[in-house]
C-alpha cells in the first residue's frame, strides 16, 4: 500500500507518516518517487499506537526531610505558588497522595503546630500556612479512570475545626477510585445520616483531631451504629494507608467499635505534652 493510504489508516497527515518513515518508526520501501508500506508493519504500528501510554516513571524522593524543610520554608514565608508547585511536581512525578500527605504535608503542619505551641509562630502565620496547604490539596483531588470501588462520606465531628486531615483522607480515597463526599466540618448528626443514606454510602469516615471533639465523635459513632451505617474513625497519628487497607478489605463491616476511635490522639498527645496547649490558636 502507498504511504498516503497508510497515513489515512493511521489517522495522521501524509507529512507525519513521511516523517515517521524518515525516523524509522514506520518501515517503507522506496519505489521510484513513492513509498510502499507493508500491511503487517502498518497493523503493528496501529496496534502499538492504540495502547495507552505507560504512566510517567515514579519520581523517587531521596530525602523527604529536605522536601519537608523546603515546604516548611515556603509555608512560613507565605510563598503559595512555590509551595503549590513543589507539591504539584511530586504529584506529576507519580508520587502517591498518601506519601505526599504523610511524608510532606503532615510533618510540615506538625512543625507549624510545634512552633505555634512554643510561641514562635503567630496565629496569622499558622492560618496562612494552613490555607496554602488546603489549596495545595485541591490539586491532588483526582479521580482516576476506572470502575468506582464504592461510596464514602468523609466528615469531621462538631467541635473540631481541623479540616485538613479529612481533606487529605478525601484526596487519598478519590485517588483510589472511591466516590467520596467530603462534608468538611460541623455537620449535624441528622444531616450526616441523611446524606449517607441519600448517597448510598458504603462507609462514613470520621476524622478527629481536636481532643475536645472526642465526645462528639463518640455520639456520631453511636448514631451511625443505630442507623446501621458502618464507619471508621481516625485522628492525629492514624495513617491514611491504614484507612485504605481497611476499606479495601472491607474490614469495617458491622464494626460497632473500632480501635482507631478509642484514642485517636494517644500517640501524639504524649509526644507533644512538653509544649502544652495553654496557648490558644484562636484568641
Ligand atoms: C492547622 C491547625 C489548626 C487550624 C485548623 C485549620 C484547618 N483548616 O484545618 C485551627 C486554627 C482551626 C486550629 C485550631 C485549634 N487547634 Co490546631 N492545629 C493545627 C495544626 C498546626 C495542623 C493540623 C493538621 O492539619 N495536621 C496535619 C494532619 C493532617 O496530620 P495527622 O493529624 O497525622 O492526620 C492524618 C490522619 O488524620 C489521617 N486520617 C484522616 N482521616 C482518617 C480516617 C481514618 C479512619 C484513618 C485511619 C486515618 C485518617 O490522615 C491524616 C494525614 O496523614 C496542628 C499541628 C499538628 N501536629 O497537626 C495543630 C493542633 C492539632 N491543634 C491543637 C490545638 C490545641 C488546637 C486548639 C484547641 C487551639 C485552641 N486552644 O484554640 C484549636 C481547636 C479548635 C477546634 N474547635 O477544633 C493541638 C492539639 C494538641 C492535642 N492533641 O491536644 C495541635 C497538635 C497543635 C499543638 N502542637 O499543640 N488548629
UniProtKB/TrEMBL annotation:
InterPro entries according to UniProt: Cbl-bd_cap (IPR003759), Cobalamin-bd (IPR006158), Cobalamin-bd_sf (IPR036724), DNA-bd_dom_put_sf (IPR009061), HTH_17 (IPR041657), Met_Synthase/Corrinoid (IPR050554), Meth_synthase_dom (IPR036594), SinI_DNA-bd (IPR010093)
Top-rank lineage group of the source organism: Bacteria
Molecular function per GO: cobalamin binding; DNA binding; metal ion binding; methionine synthase activity
PROSITE patterns linked: B12_BINDING
GO term, biological process aspect, one: homocysteine metabolic process
Keyword line: Cobalt, Metal-binding
Pfam families: B12-binding, B12-binding_2, HTH_17
Domain named B12-binding: residues: 149-271
Residue segments, region Disordered: 253-283
GO cellular component, one term: cytosol
Listed Gene3D superfamilies: Cobalamin-binding domain, Methionine synthase domain
The keyword Metal-binding is annotated on this UniProt entry: yes
Biased composition (Basic and acidic residues): 262-275
Keyword Metal-binding: yes
Protein name (database record): DNA binding domain-containing protein, excisionase family
Amino acid at each position: 500500500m502507498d504511504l498516503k493510504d497508510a497515513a489515512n489508516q493511521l489517522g495522521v497527515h501524509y507529512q507525519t507518516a513521511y516523517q515517521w518513515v524518515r525516523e524509522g518508526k514506520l518501515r517503507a520501501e522506496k519505489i521510484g518517487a513513492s513509498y510502499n508500506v507493508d500491511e503487517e508493519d502498518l497493523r503493528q504500528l496501529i496496534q502499538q499506537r492504540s495502547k495507552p501510554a505507560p504512566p510517567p516513571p515514579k519520581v523517587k524522593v531521596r530525602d523527604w526531610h529536605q522536601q519537608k524543610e523546603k515546604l516548611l520554608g515556603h509555608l512560613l514565608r507565605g510563598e503559595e505558588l512555590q509551595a503549590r508547585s513543589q507539591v504539584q511536581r511530586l504529584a506529576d512525578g507519580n508520587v502517591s497522595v498518601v506519601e505526599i500527605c504523610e511524608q510532606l504535608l503532615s510533618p510540615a503542619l506538625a512543625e507549624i503546630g510545634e512552633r505555634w505551641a512554643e510561641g514562635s509562630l503567630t496565629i496569622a502565620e499558622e492560618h496562612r500556612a494552613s490555607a496554602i496547604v488546603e489549596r495545595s490539596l485541591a490539586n491532588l483531588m483526582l479521580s482516576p479512570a476506572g470502575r468506582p470501588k464504592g461510596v464514602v462520606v468523609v466528615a469531621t465531628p462538631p467541635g473540631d475545626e481541623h479540616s485538613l486531615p479529612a481533606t487529605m483522607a478525601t484526596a487519598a480515597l478519590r485517588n483510589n477510585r472511591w466516590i467520596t463526599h467530603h462534608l468538611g466540618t460541623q455537620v449535624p448528626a441528622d444531616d450526616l445520616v441523611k446524606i449517607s443514606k441519600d448517597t448510598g454510602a458504603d462507609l462514613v469516615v470520621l476524622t478527629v483531631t481536636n481532643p475536645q471533639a472526642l465526645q462528639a465523635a463518640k455520639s456520631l459513632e453511636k448514631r451511625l451504629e443505630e442507623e446501621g451505617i458502618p464507619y471508621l474513625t481516625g485522628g492525629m497519628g492514624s495513617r491514611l494507608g491504614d484507612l485504605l487497607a481497611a476499606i479495601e478489605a472491607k474490614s469495617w463491616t458491622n464494626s460497632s467499635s473500632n480501635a482507631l476511635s478509642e484514642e485517636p490522639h494517644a500517640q501524639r498527645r504524649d509526644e507533644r505534652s512538653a509544649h502544652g496547649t495553654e496557648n490558644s490558636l484562636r484568641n
